[in-house]
């Protein structure tokens, strides 16, 4: 891994949601848990873009929200710029340097707040800038995301999906954070609008030296935007490495299937029709023993049903959690 | 922070114009309000607005409506029309006072509970449930006994105590919907505390629904209050009140039916007016 | 500028829409969702209808099956020719003869398409029973569609009451259908309720119901948009198999050109209520002609950001409440000419299996 301090690091991060069954006091009732994030250790270098890829239920959104301290972790550590973070105490301090953009542009903006107020909210809450300074910063940020000063007084209902997402991005960068968590930032947008937003994200990253943590289920977007790709399955990281490596030469059976299932605009290569994948994402409450992917894995053997594989380096900087990585080489 | 409520009022009026019922309801409510205000003002400024005295006899007892006495006279010869007018400020105000109180308490309590969730939400809602269980008549009697007096204020207090829980429940439900929106998370990421979030984000977004409910509810308060005064609580004999009038004049229903009829009509019309207005507002919002 | 007449030397089309125009009444005015659309769909074809939101692709799908919302949408022009009948001008009761039996449709969100209170097996059985009744001539065009159990015939089984499990007589047929759509453990699934199934399974149940009628044409409106990538691959593969094995014509409405490239034979690209390009899949990707198609292809992220291959289309989708003269794409088109703001181009054949509506080509 990089020699400089990574901007963000998690150590064995876990987030379990208790299922309340039966009657009685909360402590006695919760015996079973939804293990949304089940021990994830990830690091993001400064200026880098790490894409966390996976399907629904894999825990990537929970991971993002836990890192953003919107929900407290059940176990494990979060380090920001090398310093351990206590979600309850340090949240406000960290938020000047860490921000988030959400998936749904419609629920990201308060329908009663004008564009200027929306973008200025973090400035008013986290900095001590005067009213005039806030306004100036907001206008500058509006220009950064390609929208003019005339948008200042508009309301969300007067904006299109793409414009709303730009405002959400503007709000996130108004305090000049160092790390931006992007939770499926373009999934709800049309293709042409998605391209505009992706270009904007690239431009902003170069302009401000931002680090991105991109959560997405779209392999193409992950490949386009990121340097490093992390693949999640059922709450765990199953593969991690440089984008080129992971996407072109995947070393975990799940990643292989995921990439083969992702549609590419190439009618001469209809890999989608020839991939075989059976079964479905396992229950997060009662996952399979051993490697969680074993019921669906074409290479599964005895050991896969009993021992949980750990991340091992399969080539430089490329890690996979599989007992038989040679099968995918 | 930029306020959109003034523009909102104008668009509110425009919305109402779409439905005939809403216009009618609004007209009735406005009429009642204006009459109530005028009568109260006249009273404060010692201006003689009422044609006759409210407490003294001014004509032959039990005379039917005529040009001299528009709604007739009662068993003591008092002019019914003047009496009815003088009751207007109280009967109209009671609705706004009780609903206003319930709305404020409900929004704050319910809104905060819905926003915070968890144990706080449970505690606040259980607290609300306690008040929910109280029956209005019983409380009115208890308060009257406790404060050792029985009048408008005491009845109003009783009504306020039992009225707010429904608003808290409703506000909590609406706040829960808002609490799951991404802009609330964004507010947390902006360093906003719960209280600020309540006022900045939750209340503006739940007020619409709550106001509709409140408008419809005004009529119910009036009806309940009239029921209480009919039973004898609330105001003392000389002071006029529509519900109390029905009690007093029910004995004359055969000989002088107009005495019980007009107060009843006025109450009904008031309730209908509030209902129409509330329905109109609800429909107008849904159309948008 | 030749008008499209039909592919030379081809068999007569299964479905032929000519000059189809559909208008919606919205709070903001009248919107022309479809503008004089000409589309001939062949049998055994896998057609993809591609476009962004507001282009009219969903409206097109709904028009073909007669499911336009009656209060707000109307076919204001054109026809939809199917087996000698104009579907666009049939009454609802007449349409019922075709809908479900000849032309079937599946939607994006299977959870709202299935009755949450009835077991999955029962819902599929209902569809099977309906088909049998149709075959026996119990329901036909002109009937109200009310099912009346004729005591004379005892062949057609009765549907079990609310909540009860399916009797053995129907189970084997339902199992067959579920096996056809590759649902594992069909015997178990028959007794499940929709909420117990995952999104992918529900979508497959929907396809099973649609297929139970043995339709000639299956319209799928964004069936995989709400599904995971791997599940999407499974469902798309299934649809391809259905076309290969049963000969069903498939019309896949999607916003994703990449998805279309993986399964379709032919693509039509729609913009602002019009078809701008109509070509075989290989033609479209090797020689995209319409500037919008080129723009869409350039929008798909490929490779890394340093490739600089991602070129967004400038501008945004036009406001359809405002009627404009000329080509609808003109404000955003890098090749626009004087002519483009004066007249609206129609589809012109430029090659075998390739038509485009653009003045760059005549």
What would you say about this model in short?
With about 290 residues, chain B is mainly alpha-helical. Helix content of chain B is about 75%, strand content about 0%. Chain B has a single domain (about 15-285), classed as Orthogonal Bundle (MetI-like fold), CATH 1.10.3720.
Summarize this structure as a short list of keywords or feature phrases.
heterotrimer; B: 288 residues; mainly alpha; MetI-like fold; 74% helix; elongated; C: 362 residues; alpha/beta; Rossmann fold; 11 helices; 12 strands; globular
Describe this structure in words.
- The complex is a heterotrimer of chains A (about 325), B (about 290) and C (about 350).
- Chain A is of the alpha/beta class.
- Chain A folds into 2 domains: about 10-95 and about 175-330, P-loop containing nucleotide triphosphate hydrolases (Rossmann fold); about 105-175, no CATH class.
- Chain A is built from 12 helices and 13 strands.
- In chain A, helix 5 packs across helix 6.
- The longest helix of chain A is centred in the middle third of the chain and has 18 residues, at about 190-210.
- Chain A is globular and about 65 Å long.
- Chain B starts with a helix and ends with a helix.
- Chain B is mainly alpha-helical and about 290 residues long.
- Mean pLDDT of chain B is about 85; it is low at about 1-5.
- In chain B, helix 2 packs across helix 3 and helix 9 runs antiparallel to helix 10.
- Chain C is about 30% helix and about 20% strand.
- Chain C has 11 helices and 12 strands.
- Chain C has helices at about 55-65, 90-100, 110-115, 120-135, 170-180, 185-190, 200-210, 230-245, 255-265, 280-285, 290-300, and strands spanning about 15-25, 30-40, 45-50, 75-80, 85, 105, 215-220, 250-255, 265-270, 275-280, 350, 355.
- In chain C, the strands form 2 sheets. An 8-stranded mixed β-sheet of chain C has the order 6-7-8-3-9-10-12-11, with helices on both faces. A 4-stranded antiparallel β-sheet of chain C has the order 2-1-4-5, with helices on one face.
- In chain C, helix 4 crosses helix 5 (about 170-180) and helix 4 (about 120-135) packs parallel to helix 7.
- The longest helix of chain C is centred in the middle third of the chain and has 18 residues, at about 230-245.
- The relative contact order of chain C is 0.15.
- Chains in contact: A-B, A-C.
- The interface of A and C includes residues 162, 196, 217, 263 and 264 of A.
